[in-house]
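ok here's Cof-type HAD-IIB family hydrolase:
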Amino acid sequence: MANIKVVFSDIDGTLLNSNHQITSCTKKAIKKVVQKKIEFILISARMPSGMKAIYHDLDIKSPLICYNGALILGNPEVNENSKILYSATISKNDANKIYDNIKRKFSNLCFNLFSFDQWMVENTEDKWIKQESKIIKVQPMEVNIKNCINQDEGVHKILCMGEPHLISELESEINSSFLDVCCYCSKDEYLEITSINASKVLSIKALQLYFSVKHEEVMAIGDNFNDLAMIEYAGIGVAMGNAPKQVKDASDFVTKSNDQEGMQWALETFILS
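and the structure:
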């Protein structure tokens, strides 16, 4: 049995099954891990409010890693007074340029802006926004995006949703034109854009220091390309059975899929056996 002290878990496609639920078996396994005084940390592209129900359902007290590492919160209650352990935002200049470029060349894509625990859109009736709202159980605010970008709060994430071929084209353009942001697909239809100073690996390293744990005492579990680097970095990197081949190839262990109790199986293999 591995000497794991911290588990970093992705949410969608990993902790949650295809119905966006945590099964009772997985929940029981996580609670056993926490009872062993092992930190179980949620690490996701989601906003804080989109993680809150899961956080409380699991009854964990660890920090939350939001927006793929652009925002780390240390307060278990996850409210507006949460202690901010780390925050990395996209510059106003880059956010404006990205927005203008998308409106000019990719107008069919759905543009979403995130700042701390606020989700801002231009049309709450957009089909993509309704779909995402149903999944994460959060309602966005309908705003003037340009005005919001130029306020002082800072942009933690830009999310573009749309047809996969347009998402792929935009990803190539962002990667070739903007040096201070990074982007990745969390789904074929979702492109996540954050500061270059935000990543799941940087977040793991920050919380290693926070909890005084060694690299080999870290387990990371994920299912997609935005989890690839943390799976490679962790002492034990676990890929879900539903992960792409490249993610599986980079892992130390491939568990079952998110619809086959893959999380439970991984925890039992390395911690609970």
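+1. The first helix runs from residue 11 to 15.
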